[in-house]
Design a protein that fits this description.
about 210 residues; mainly beta; six-stranded antiparallel beta sheet; 16 strands; globular
Length: about 210
Amino acid sequence: MAVLYQATLVPPKIELLQAWIPHQPWLGDADASAVKVVGAYRFDDPDGEVGIETHLLRTADGQILQIPVTYRGSPVDGAESSLIATTRHSVLGERWVYDACVDPVYVQALATAILSGGTQAELEVVTDVGQERRQATTRVSGSGSPDTAIPSIGPVSYSSRGTTTVVRAGHLELTLFRTIDPNRENCAQGGTQALVGTWPRNDTPAVLALAQIT
């Protein structure tokens, strides 16, 4: 369960991403002069400290970008190059927004969802009058099995290969597709498992990420 607050962010998330995306090495030929939100999904941090959200954005030329971010209450040592920006949350105060591929909490959550056959977190929103359930705009599911043992997360490193990001953490290797191709073949076979998702106006599951234990 991901607990959210009905709050205002200054500057808003979309403004942070609009400024950051055009400078990223994985952008490929996508026209990021303007981006619009088409969906998002979250994973849960069991410790309740880190917000984990993946944005799906449509570019000016119609491509879908996948942008995972983490929200933290303090800076992460050694992760300065992966800091997207800071923002002011009207309930939680200043938040540090990171490219999630550098964040071990995100890596653990993504690997667990893929390898154990998990899904996106259910959303609970805290309002002035109590808590209410909110439906996720994007539904994701992993192809793995609940009885899979998830390795512990080692030091996290990542690199870009074309429009993908490859994350390594101990015995885990994750491949995140930054540009979503609806025709991409589902490579869930052998030791590789996949995360697939649907979002508004896209009911056919698309491959979002891969995971394998090395």
